[in-house]
Amino acid sequence: MRKMRTQSAPWRAAAVLASVLLVGGVAACGNSDTGGGGSKDDGKITMGFSQVGAESGWRTANTTSIKEAAAAAGVELKFDDAQQKQENQIKAIRNYIQQKVDVIAFSPVVESGWDTVLKEAKDADIPVILTDRSVDSADKSLYKTFLGSDFVKEGRLAGEWLVEQKKTASGPVNIVELQGNTGAAPANDRKKGFAEAIAANPNLKVIASQPGDFTRAGGKQVMEQFLKANPKIDVLFAHNDDMGLGALEAITAAGKVPGKDITIITVDAVKDGMQALADGKFNFIAECSPLLGPQLMDLAKKVHAGEQVAPRIETEETTFTQAQAKEALPNRKY
Ligand code: GYE
After folding, report:
1. Is the CB of 190 within 6 Å of ligand 1?
2. Considering 29, 58, 94, 95, which has the largest number of Cβ atoms within 10 A of its Cβ?
3. Separation of 297 CA from ligand 1 center, angstroms?
4. CA-CA distance, 2 to 30, in Å (whole number)?
5. How far away, in angstroms, is 307 Cα from ligand 1 center?
6. Could you tell me which residues are beta bridge partners of residue 204?
7. How confident is the model over 283-312, as a mean pLDDT?
8. How far is the CA of 29 from the centre of ligand 1 (A)?
9. What is the tens place of the pLDDT at every residue in 55-81?
């Protein structure tokens, strides 16, 4: 700049104009303290969160965790329940973009079909955090990070336990599978991990596999059909506790003893599932933690401040046998 001031008049005019523009530009940046969201200037982060629904005990615990963590972290939370419909989630995300929230977080009900709306958020300069479930978008720049479980691993742990239990089985072991809602990451991945693990023993065969939408009603209804169509069912693998709990009713109504006549393996480890396991009605649970709220708020603050975050953050989890469930149950928070 200093050098330019010694130039002739037209150059000086250009230099003045340039510095005005520069200062103006810096000032404009300084005003939008939101680092990409552009809402209020009170220093509080506003998060728009689109939840899948209220389909299971896991989901209820997840919603509570997010709401409590937002309050504790001083994050202003706008919350929408999509009732397990992708169109509702897209609508909610578009609303959040219009409201210029600082951060958008959501748990995608299915894996596919998000590119357009994620691109809209990116164009509006609003960072997106995926929580619990992921998307299959090839363009990873459409979101900052994905916080959640390794669902393939959960399915694999369930399958490995079964392989171990049935290692002396001489004849066929007939397995039925209750899947989560069609197209959801945990449904696709748990199915995959389980299938990979049981491939170790050719006696283990999935003879029927249908979606029960992660709900008790769905689990009960589909299990009734399974029982009608298949006289010999040895094992049920349910993609979550709630479907397993619904299936218990169908199994009992069919005159069979759950946990004995039919070995039951589920995923989640919410309180009711753990109770069924401790009571001997379930046989094994692969845990999936819904307590994602505190980590989510932490990440929101970081991406809002423009900090780099890891593109994938995995939840820590374990598995439970009946004896372990009895021991853990009194301290279970959800
Ligand atoms: O396992 C199931 C819920 O996405 C991990 O969704 C979550 C799954 C959970 O409905 O209970």
Report:
1. no
2. 58
3. 20
4. 25
5. 29
6. 173
7. 97
8. 41
9. 999 999 999 999 999 999 999 999 999
CATH topology match: 46-149+291-316 vs 151-288: yes
Give yes or no for residue 246 CB within 6 A of ligand 1: no
For 82-103, the pLDDT digits (tens) are 999 999 999 999 999 999 999 9
8, pLDDT greater than 70: no
Q: How far apart are CA 91 and CA 313, in angstroms?
A: 27
Query: What is the token pair recorded at 69?
Result: 């963590």
pLDDT tens per residue across span 182-235: 999 999 999 999 999 999 999 999 999 999 999 999 999 999 999 999 999 999
Residue 12 pLDDT > 80: no
Determine whether the shortest distance from the Cβ of 282 to ligand 1 is under 6 A. Answer: no
pLDDT, position 310 = 97
Ligand 1 atom, smallest distance to 267 CA:
1
CATH of 151-288, one of 3.40.47.10, 3.40.50.2300, 2.130.10.10, 3.40.50.720: 3.40.50.2300
CA distance 242 to 228: 21
CA of 186 to the centre of ligand 1 (A): 7
